[in-house]
Design goal:
By secondary structure, the protein is α/β, with parallel strands linked by helices. The chain has helices at about 5-15, 65-70, 80-90, 100-110, 115-125, 145-170, 175-185, 210-230, 235, 240-250, 255, 270-285, 305-320, 325, 330-340, 350-365, and strands at about 5, 20-30, 40-45, 50-55, 75-80, 100, 365-370, 375-380. It is built from 16 helices and eight strands. The strands form two sheets. The protein has a six-stranded mixed beta sheet. It has a two-stranded antiparallel ribbon with strand order 7-8. InterPro entries: 3'-5'_exonuclease_dom (IPR002562), HRDC-like_sf (IPR010997), HRDC_dom (IPR002121), HRDC_dom_sf (IPR044876), RNase_D (IPR006292), RNase_D-like (IPR051086), RNaseH-like_sf (IPR012337), RNaseH_sf (IPR036397). It is an enzyme of class 3 (hydrolase).
Length: about 375
């Protein structure tokens, strides 16, 4: 097993991988006590090449491997890539490309919604994965041979699974389906939260209009603090504290101290002063400048129509061997039940061919669903 701890070794390994059509990549990281993930290992494998890179090794420069991540000639293969991409986005300021996510590909091939790495490898490769090292503290050194073997297997299996998935996609003419999904992963906003947009992560159900500005400003302050101090958001200010303070809107330290979620003495700290400033700024935002998120009674989708559309979705996904989550969410189905021209993915592109058009025809009564020998069939009305 090759464990790379010097820049020269990494340069040689990365050069060899740049001659490959694709490279399987995985990372091990820790972030329980930090805002930003601490990169502990990078595993990579190409055809005939495989190694573990130790980013914590003294004076190791990751540049040769990061250059590989931006090489457009080499496909980067991940499984459930979102968290790995966040790490590389922070290191290179961009998303590795071109990109292939085996979890998304598996959904397009009918392996179920968001199938995990281990069950997918068992299904595709009959691989037996030792789970004993799953909860390793990857920041500790030295790592045992068993831990390193477990980490490396994540990419060696991935390397073997990639051609099988691409072959299936080609045979079913679904490569473009997956490419569309990969495009969504190129959005840098997925991997770095701008403080002024942090409020969008909160569930604002029940928040009154006059509280919205305060919620926005408190969330912005918390995000700035968490990023600057590299500490989890919840250690700066919990969500429930934001909502309580937005409701109470204290104007001075004495009033702030009365908040149940604020620890004793906090009101006299620098953070306490910053919170009071954020609350004041939030209350001063003109109503017209606030996002339109006031509570509105939404039209309720007819339950029977929703139920029928869900049955149709299950039937179509089984017929086309594709995961339902890749086609439509419950919210999408409710939108279709209410509006034939709803702007949801299920009514566009390949999803419309697989499900959307049939859903509209079912609503119009042009087709019906029939149960035959425990299977749902479509019949022309």
């Amino acid at each position: 097993m090759q464990v790379i701890s010097t820049t020269d070794e990494l340069a040689r390994f990365s050069k060899a991988l740049r001659e490959q059509p694709f490279v399987a990549v995985d990372t091990e990281f820790m972030r329980e006590k930090t805002y930003w993930p601490i990169l502990c290992l990078i595993q990579a494998a190409g055809e005939g090449e495989e190694a573990i890179i130790d980013p914590l090794a003294d004076k190791l420069d990751l540049s040769p491997f990061l250059d590989l991540m931006t090489d457009k000639k080499v496909v980067k293969v991940f499984h459930a890539a979102r968290q790995d991409l966040e790490i590389f986005y922070r290191l290179i300021g961009d998303v590795p490309a071109p990109l292939f996510d085996t979890q998304i590909a598996a959904m397009a091939c009918g392996f179920g919604d968001q199938i995990g790495y281990e069950p997918l490898m068992r299904t595709l490769l009959k691989a037996k994965i030792d789970k004993g090292s799953r909860f390793t503290d990857w920041a500790r050194r030295p790592l045992t041979d068993a831990q390193l073997t477990y980490a490396l297997s994540d990419v060696t299996h991935l390397r073997d699974a990639f051609p099988l998935l691409t072959d299936t996609l080609e045979k079913r003419e679904r490569r473009k389906w997956v490419e569309e999904e990969m495009e969504a992963l190129n959005d840098g906003g997925l991997y770095h939260v701008q403080p002024e947009s942090a409020w969008k992560r909160l569930k604002l159900r029940g928040v009154r209009p006059k509280e919205i500005g305060v919620v926005m400003k408190l969330a912005e302050w918390r995000e700035q603090e968490a990023q600057t101090k590299d500490t989890p958001r919840s250690r700066v200010l919990k969500d429930e504290s934001i909502f309580e303070l937005a409701r109470l809107q204290p104007g001075d330290a004495k009033s702030l101290a009365r908040a149940r979620s604020i620890p004793s003495g906090f009101e006299r700290s620098k953070s306490g002063s910053a919170i009071l400033k954020a609350i004041k700024e939030g209350t001063e935002i003109p109503r017209d400048n606030l996002p339109a998120i006031e509570k509105v009674e939404k039209e309720k989708a007819p339950a029977d129509v929703v139920d029928l559309l869900k049955v149709l979705l299950k039937r179509q996904c089984e017929a086309f061997h594709v995961a339902p989550k890749l086609i439509a969410s419950s919210a999408d189905i409710e939108a279709i039940a209410l509006d034939d021209e709803a702007d949801v993915p299920a009514l566009h592109g390949w999803r419309r061919d697989v499900y959307g058009e049939a859903a509209l025809r079912l609503k119009r009564g042009e087709i019906a669903l029939k149960l035959k020998k425990d299977a749902v069939e479509i019949i022309e009305s």
